What does this fold into?
Amino acid sequence: MSNNSKHLKKPEWLRIKMQGGENLNHVQKTLDKFGLTTVCHEASCPNRMECFNKSTATFMILGSVCTRGCSFCDIATGPGQTVDMLEPKHIADAVKALKLKYVVVTSVTRDDLPDGGAFHFADVIREIQKASPTASIEVLIPDFKGNRDALNTVIDAKPIIINHNIETVPRLYKAVRPQAKYEQSLELLRRVKETTDEIYTKSGMMVGLGETREEVLQSLRDLRDVECDFLTIGQYLAPTKDHHPVIEYVHPDVFEIYRKAAIKMGFKDAACGPLVRSSYKAHEMLETK
Ligand code: SF4
It folds into this structure.
């Protein structure tokens, strides 16, 4: 795959000054104390200062090695690591210590585990609910290879939002997330709604991977067909030159077109912008419903 993103000049709307500050250090110290990993830190997310200041963080469970290898993702690929059975308690302790109001829990994909790690998601949710009953919990889950029982294990733990990203349009799956299936991801979101009306669903995409505007709009329609409630769309940024190239830096006006179209299609809320990530403004979204 020829990498032409190095020829693409990063536009001014993506040049941001990384914020630091006291709260960031406090949060990081607390996470280190409990030996926890956040996507915020792992992915050097540009929004983490803003999120931490709003008492929101995204924890990554089930280790830091993924059994898949998506071409856009910076996470290490290989055999899955031993599951830390103390992780649910440690996350609950950190949530309490940081007085987090909104907690997102995500993971690498663990195709090596019988239920893809669904039991561990459920344990984390229940431990947080016990320690911080007022905290809202969103889980950003893998596709569990379409395993319905695994999904029910997570549903039964009653998070407030089940998020599962479709990431891109179906035509690009082979190049971008070869071990996933577009229809399987939509089916997972549909099954949540089929099973309960107590949990919101959410999905997200990256743009700038070579998709057309019409393909993005079609994916939004596909998500609404499975009654997806919330949406995020952000700019794909290549972690390294060995990852999928950036084909386009999408203009903020185009993100606004997507956001307006999404609201018109019936999404309860949509965060669309160059720096938007899956958990960005997650708390605010919930407040809009
Ligand atoms: S499945 Fe998720 S964590 Fe694994 S490589 Fe793909 S995007 Fe990264």
